[in-house]
Amino acid sequence: MSEEESDDFGPAPVPADAAAPQPVQDNRRCDGANGAAGPGSEAAAGGAAVGSPDAAQAAQRRREFLMDMRGRFLCGEDKDYVDYSEIDADASLDDEEHVRRQQDQDAEDAYFDDVMEGVD
Protein backbone atom coordinates (compact mmCIF):
# COMPACT_ATOMS: atom_id res chain seq x y z
CA MET A 1 0.00 0.00 0.00
CA SER A 2 1.44 3.36 -0.95
CA GLU A 3 1.69 6.38 1.32
CA GLU A 4 -1.13 8.02 -0.62
CA GLU A 5 -3.56 5.17 0.06
CA SER A 6 -5.33 4.64 3.34
CA ASP A 7 -6.22 1.23 4.73
CA ASP A 8 -9.43 2.60 6.26
CA PHE A 9 -10.63 4.04 2.95
CA GLY A 10 -10.63 7.53 4.39
CA PRO A 11 -10.32 10.63 2.24
CA ALA A 12 -7.53 10.72 -0.28
CA PRO A 13 -4.74 13.19 0.42
CA VAL A 14 -5.15 16.45 -1.48
CA PRO A 15 -2.14 18.53 -2.52
CA ALA A 16 -1.79 21.79 -0.58
CA ASP A 17 -2.19 23.84 -3.77
CA ALA A 18 -5.50 22.15 -4.70
CA ALA A 19 -8.75 24.09 -4.46
CA ALA A 20 -10.89 23.34 -1.43
CA PRO A 21 -13.37 20.56 -2.29
CA GLN A 22 -17.06 21.22 -1.99
CA PRO A 23 -18.96 19.17 0.61
CA VAL A 24 -20.90 16.19 -0.69
CA GLN A 25 -24.52 15.83 0.32
CA ASP A 26 -25.64 12.24 0.66
CA ASN A 27 -29.23 11.92 -0.58
CA ARG A 28 -29.13 8.12 -0.66
CA ARG A 29 -32.18 6.31 0.66
CA CYS A 30 -32.45 2.59 1.27
CA ASP A 31 -35.95 2.33 -0.21
CA GLY A 32 -34.69 2.40 -3.79
CA ALA A 33 -35.68 6.03 -4.41
CA ASN A 34 -32.17 7.39 -4.22
CA GLY A 35 -32.47 10.07 -6.85
CA ALA A 36 -28.98 9.12 -7.96
CA ALA A 37 -27.86 10.09 -11.41
CA GLY A 38 -27.70 7.36 -13.98
CA PRO A 39 -24.56 6.48 -15.89
CA GLY A 40 -23.73 8.99 -18.57
CA SER A 41 -25.66 11.82 -16.96
CA GLU A 42 -24.00 15.13 -16.21
CA ALA A 43 -24.22 14.47 -12.47
CA ALA A 44 -22.68 11.02 -12.87
CA ALA A 45 -19.84 12.58 -14.85
CA GLY A 46 -19.30 15.13 -12.11
CA GLY A 47 -20.48 17.93 -14.36
CA ALA A 48 -16.90 18.47 -15.45
CA ALA A 49 -15.56 18.74 -18.96
CA VAL A 50 -14.17 15.59 -20.51
CA GLY A 51 -10.49 15.17 -19.74
CA SER A 52 -8.36 14.33 -16.77
CA PRO A 53 -9.62 15.83 -13.52
CA ASP A 54 -7.40 17.98 -11.41
CA ALA A 55 -6.42 16.80 -7.92
CA ALA A 56 -9.41 18.47 -6.22
CA GLN A 57 -11.89 16.91 -8.64
CA ALA A 58 -10.26 13.51 -8.23
CA ALA A 59 -10.44 13.80 -4.44
CA GLN A 60 -14.09 14.90 -4.65
CA ARG A 61 -15.00 11.99 -6.92
CA ARG A 62 -13.20 9.56 -4.61
CA ARG A 63 -15.18 10.85 -1.61
CA GLU A 64 -18.43 10.53 -3.59
CA PHE A 65 -17.52 7.00 -4.67
CA LEU A 66 -16.66 5.89 -1.13
CA MET A 67 -19.82 7.50 0.26
CA ASP A 68 -21.87 5.67 -2.38
CA MET A 69 -20.17 2.36 -1.59
CA ARG A 70 -20.75 2.82 2.16
CA GLY A 71 -24.39 3.69 1.44
CA ARG A 72 -24.81 0.58 -0.70
CA PHE A 73 -23.34 -1.55 2.10
CA LEU A 74 -25.50 0.02 4.82
CA CYS A 75 -28.64 -0.31 2.68
CA GLY A 76 -27.94 -4.00 2.10
CA GLU A 77 -27.40 -3.59 -1.64
CA ASP A 78 -24.15 -5.60 -1.66
CA LYS A 79 -25.77 -8.96 -0.89
CA ASP A 80 -24.13 -10.47 -3.98
CA TYR A 81 -20.73 -9.76 -2.43
CA VAL A 82 -21.33 -9.59 1.33
CA ASP A 83 -22.80 -12.17 3.70
CA TYR A 84 -24.79 -9.81 5.90
CA SER A 85 -26.06 -12.65 8.13
CA GLU A 86 -22.45 -13.46 9.09
CA ILE A 87 -21.86 -9.83 10.02
CA ASP A 88 -25.13 -9.65 11.98
CA ALA A 89 -24.24 -12.81 13.92
CA ASP A 90 -20.75 -11.57 14.90
CA ALA A 91 -21.20 -10.15 18.41
CA SER A 92 -17.66 -8.76 18.38
CA LEU A 93 -18.85 -6.13 15.88
CA ASP A 94 -21.64 -4.89 18.15
CA ASP A 95 -21.36 -1.53 19.87
CA GLU A 96 -21.80 -2.67 23.48
CA GLU A 97 -22.96 0.75 24.68
CA HIS A 98 -25.63 0.89 21.96
CA VAL A 99 -26.77 -2.66 22.79
CA ARG A 100 -27.03 -1.76 26.50
CA ARG A 101 -29.03 1.40 25.71
CA GLN A 102 -31.35 -0.59 23.44
CA GLN A 103 -31.88 -3.24 26.13
CA ASP A 104 -32.66 -0.49 28.68
CA GLN A 105 -35.11 1.11 26.24
CA ASP A 106 -36.78 -2.25 25.55
CA ALA A 107 -37.16 -2.91 29.29
CA GLU A 108 -38.62 0.57 29.82
CA ASP A 109 -41.05 0.10 26.93
CA ALA A 110 -42.16 -3.27 28.31
CA TYR A 111 -42.69 -1.75 31.77
CA PHE A 112 -44.87 1.07 30.46
CA ASP A 113 -46.78 -1.34 28.20
CA ASP A 114 -47.63 -3.39 31.30
CA VAL A 115 -48.58 -0.28 33.31
CA MET A 116 -50.80 1.06 30.53
CA GLU A 117 -52.62 -2.28 30.19
CA GLY A 118 -53.67 -1.97 33.85
CA VAL A 119 -55.03 1.57 33.32
CA ASP A 120 -57.77 0.60 30.88
Automatic annotation (TrEMBL):
Regions of biased composition (Acidic residues) lie at 105-120
Highest taxon of the source? Eukaryota
- Could you tell me where the Low complexity compositional bias lies? 15-25, 32-56
Ranges for domain CCD97-like C-terminal come to 52-114
What are the boundaries of the region Disordered? 1-56, 89-120
Recorded protein name is: CCD97-like C-terminal domain-containing protein
Q: Which organism is it from?
A: Monoraphidium neglectum
